[in-house]
UniProtKB/TrEMBL annotation:
Annotated organism of origin: marine sediment metagenome
InterPro entries associated with the record: WD40/YVTN_repeat-like_dom_sf (IPR015943)
Protein name as annotated: Photosynthesis system II assembly factor Ycf48/Hcf136-like domain-containing protein
Length: 110
């Protein structure tokens, strides 16, 4: 599960990623400071990919292991958004987003 929190009084933005067991118990929780999450995907090894934008409005993708360990974060595009992610049958990660204030779209494969 991913989500965002924006404190209007301080302007602080925090996003989160959580994993639950099939029975609904919280398995792990990660906070992503200064980021806004817009999508996520899970690969065949249960790695979790989270996409969104940072405070500079640069698109990013972060990878977490099935146990919640942070593997990496990469900037996808400067001054563009990362909107959503999907994993294909061959376990490739695809990220879609926009540039030029939403006038143009891109699709990136990892």
């Amino acid at each position: 599960v991913t989500g965002n929190k924006h404190d209007l009084s301080t302007g602080e933005r925090t996003s989160l990623a959580r994993k639950y067991t099939p029975g609904g118990k919280l398995k792990w929780h990660r906070s992503l400071a200064d980021k806004s999450v817009s999508g996520s995907a899970i690969d065949r090894r249960d790695n979790i990919y989270v996409v969104g934008n940072d405070d500079n409005m640069d698109g990013f993708v972060s990878k977490y292991s099935r146990s919640g360990g942070h593997r990496w974060t990469r900037q996808i595009i400067s001054e563009g958004s990362a909107t959503d992610a999907a994993v294909s049958a061959d376990n490739s990660l695809y990220v879609i987003g926009s540039i030029d204030n939403g006038r143009n779209w891109y699709l990136a494969k990892y």
